[in-house]
């Protein structure tokens, strides 16, 4: 067979493929038939690619020409195929939209959820409610008198340094703790007082894995005649058992706060290692959960309570820290960056 024939043959083959394929494509009435035609003519082992393998036996000088023809056929078929795909889609579309497709999976509705810190606050409030505590609130913009002076923290006292804050107009600041709510409640109500005051506080703190310049606190205050340290410990123990579990142990460590005397830092046995020592408790087996103490008589004097008649206890805790512990969140910023993907898992 001469080379002329080879080329001629290939041309004929290509032409017949073209005609046949065009027909098959145009006649396809659904995607499946169209796909079959594509595989048959344009597929990797399809007629076109088999015909093209004949190119090898075409003499070198005629190969470019033959190759060009082959490419043209290929392009024509591909374009026609694409057009037919669109045509079929358009043809089928009205039918599809005639009614809802009940086989589609449902769309998930966005549901809001409770932020993990809010969940912790609510739970703390619920537990103390069982002991007769109600919720109270105070302003985030405070006077330096409520925030410091009435709480027995002179403005030039080193304890005020730890509360470096954002100062506003003369005598006003963003509160550095929720303790001023104690002052406001006592100035408005006579004992007995049992309140919890959750809220935002502000400090000139860095924003890193364990600090945020704005964070939540929950303040507690109980004042009545005859409240002693035993009642105070019992209330804290009750809370710890209810919140962290009945096998959790409590430890009171002597501390100092100007508004309580004596003062204590309350630790609980580490809820992660149960006291044997791990990274969360820095190998001590204990985790600090709050500052607390018996209300300093100086505070009673500032708010106009008779310190000879009344006693009480107070405490303050950071629910973000507690949420981190409970849900094993390694970085406090995760709580404040409104990353819904992250927060959603607690909802
Ligand atoms: N206000 C303290 C702080 O922010 C926490 C605190 C300690 C509150 C002892 C209290 C308390 O009510 O008795 O560091």
General description of the model:
This protein is of the alpha+beta class and 347 residues long. The chain has two domains: 95 residues, no CATH class; 231 residues, Bira Bifunctional Protein, Domain 2 (BirA Bifunctional Protein, domain 2). 43% of the residues lie in helices and 18% in strands. The chain has a seven-stranded mixed beta sheet with strand order 1-4-5-9-8-7-6, with helices on both faces. The structure holds 3,4-dihydroxyphenylalanine (DAH). 3,4-dihydroxyphenylalanine binds next to strand 8 and strand 9. The site of 3,4-dihydroxyphenylalanine has 11 residues, from strand 8 and strand 9.
In brief:
This protein is α+β, with helices and mostly antiparallel strands. It folds into two domains: 3-97, no CATH class; 116-346, Bira Bifunctional Protein, Domain 2 (BirA Bifunctional Protein, domain 2), CATH 3.30.930.10. The protein has 13 helices and nine strands.
User: How is the largest sheet built, in terms of strand order?
Assistant: 1-4-5-9-8-7-6
Cα distance, first to last residue?
Answer: 79 Å
Q: Please identify the top-level CATH class of the largest domain.
A: Alpha Beta
Number of strands: 9
Mean pLDDT, rounded to whole units?
Answer: 89
Give the uncertain stretches in residue-range form: none
Overall, the morphology is rod-shaped
Tell me the strand percentage band: 15-25%
Computed over alpha carbons, the radius of gyration is 39 Å
Listed once per kind, the bound small molecules are: 3,4-dihydroxyphenylalanine
Number of domains: 2
Q: Could you name the CATH homologous superfamily of the largest domain?
A: Bira Bifunctional Protein, Domain 2
Provide the succession of SSEs: HHHHHEEHHEHEEHEEEHEHHH
Under CATH, the topology of the largest domain is which?
A: BirA Bifunctional Protein, domain 2
Number of helical stretches of at least 4 residues? 13
The main pleated sheet reads as:
7 strands, mixed
Helical residues, percent: 40-55%
| Secondary-structure content class | alpha+beta
CATH-level-2 architecture of the largest domain: 2-Layer Sandwich
